[in-house]
């Protein structure tokens, strides 16, 4: 069994800094140059997910929490059904990027031979490189009805609470975040990345490593709700997805069919519950 400590050790020492300083020239509104300024920028690098010696995906990501990223990606993309199917994980820096090397159990390695997926995608899209429409709109399980009900008050305060737990965004103003909201407790885990779907994969990987069941709470994200965000949330088994921005129509169709509650436009004291409002209390 891959433990949380083992996964954290794979990220140490750090493969690369998550942010870097950059000297630039500031220009005032009147066009006057106000002199050099130092800005902190988020770093991104090519990260290859390598399973049993075969590269299955290459994505641009923030080079921190990469063990969480690799395990989360393996879980949400169906490479494994649980951490017990990952025998080892190593984070290996190279001159041109970083490899997250996973060694899967024999049955999952055999299943990989049936997948024809080679991905090199920008951080804005979680579906780049999919080789068929069928894969892009893969069938999703239906989440169990019942389960935890998220208080409306917790929904409305979650994005502001998340904003207070984004140190990389504070430094760079250029990253997304994903968090897990546990009813009655608040946010218990946060992950950041330049890519919204990367942040979500990191979060799901961190939850798995910590033994936290996504079915017991809600996922909160700083981005829009697209098809890939719904897919990853449902595959992780989380019944509620909370976002500050808008969903796409196709994402809502998938969420509705999968019994996922999508709450979006959470800002200024209000929100819009698009699907399965029964998962949020006090919505009448």
Keywords:
284 residues; alpha/beta; Cytidine Deaminase, domain 2; 6-stranded mixed β-sheet; 9 helices; globular; Cytidine_deaminase-like; molybdenum cofactor biosynthesis
How many helices does DSSP assign?
A: 9
Work out the helicity level. 25-40%
Cα-based radius of gyration, to the nearest Å? 19 Å
Poorly predicted parts: 1-13, 116-133
From N to C, what is the helix and strand string?
HEEEEHEEHEHEHHEEHEHEHEEE
Shape: globular
Alpha-beta classification: alpha/beta
Mean pLDDT: 85
Number of E strands: 15
Terminal CA distance: 45 Å
Largest sheet report: 6 strands, mixed
CATH superfamily of the domain at 150-281: Cytidine Deaminase, domain 2
CATH architectural name of the domain at 150-281: 3-Layer(aba) Sandwich
CATH topology assignment of the domain at 150-281: Cytidine Deaminase, domain 2
In percent, how much strand structure appears in the residues? 25-35%
What strand order characterises the main sheet? 10-9-11-12-13-14
Organism: Loktanella fryxellensis
Protein name: Sulfur carrier protein FdhD
Subcellular location: Cytoplasm
Keywords: Cytoplasm, Molybdenum cofactor biosynthesis
Task: Provide an overview of this structure.
With 284 residues, the protein is an alpha/beta fold. It has a domain at 150-281: Cytidine Deaminase, domain 2, CATH 3.40.140.10. Helices cover 29% and strands 31% of the residues. It is built from nine helices and 15 strands. It has helices at residues 4-10, 66-76, 106-112, 133-136, 152-163, 167-172, 196-210, 227-236, 249-257, and strands spanning 19-27, 33-42, 45-51, 54-61, 86-93, 98-104, 120-121, 150-151, 176-182, 186-193, 218-221, 240-243, 261-267, 270-273, 280-281. The strands form four sheets. The protein has a six-stranded mixed beta sheet. Strand 13 (261-267) and strand 14 (270-273) form a beta hairpin. Helix 2 packs across helix 7 and helix 7 (196-210) runs parallel beside helix 8 (227-236). It starts with a helix and ends with a strand. The model is unreliable at 1-13 and 116-133 (pLDDT under 50). It comes from Loktanella fryxellensis. Pfam families: FdhD-NarQ. The active site is at residue 125. Keywords: Cytoplasm, Molybdenum cofactor biosynthesis. Belongs to the FdhD family.
């Amino acid at each position: 069994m891959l433990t949380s400590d083992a996964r954290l050790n794979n990220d140490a020492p750090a493969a690369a800094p998550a942010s870097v300083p950059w000297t630039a020239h500031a220009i005032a509104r009147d066009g006057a140059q106000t002199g050099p300024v130092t800005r902190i920028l988020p770093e991104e690098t090519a990260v290859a997910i390598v399973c049993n010696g075969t590269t299955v995906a290459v994505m641009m990501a923030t080079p921190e929490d990469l063990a969480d990223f690799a395990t989360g990606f393996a879980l949400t993309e169906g490479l494994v059904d649980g951490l017990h199917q990952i025998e080892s994980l190593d984070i290996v820096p190279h001159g041109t990027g970083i490899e997250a090397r996973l060694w899967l159990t024999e049955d999952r390695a055999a299943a990989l031979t049936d997948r024809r997926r080679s991905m090199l995608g920008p951080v804005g899209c979680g579906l780049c490189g999919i080789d068929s429409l069928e894969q892009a709109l893969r069938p999703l399980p239906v989440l169990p009805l019942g389960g935890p009900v998220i208080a409306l008050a917790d929904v409305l305060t979650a994005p502001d609470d998340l904003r207070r737990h984004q140190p990389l965004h504070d430094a760079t103003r250029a990253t997304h975040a994903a968090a897990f909201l546990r009813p009655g407790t608040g946010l218990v885990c946060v992950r950041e990345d330049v890519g919204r779907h990367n942040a979500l994969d990191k979060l799901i990987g961190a939850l798995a490593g910590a033994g936290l069941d996504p079915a017991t709470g809600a996922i909160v994200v700083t981005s829009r709700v697209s098809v890939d965000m719904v897919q990853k949330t449902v595959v992780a088994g989380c019944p509620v997805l909370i976002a500050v921005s808008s969903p796409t129509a196709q994402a809502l169709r998938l969420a509705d069919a999968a019994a996922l509650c999508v709450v979006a436009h959470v800002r200024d004291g209000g929100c819009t519950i698009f699907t399965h409002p029964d998962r949020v209390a006090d919505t009448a």
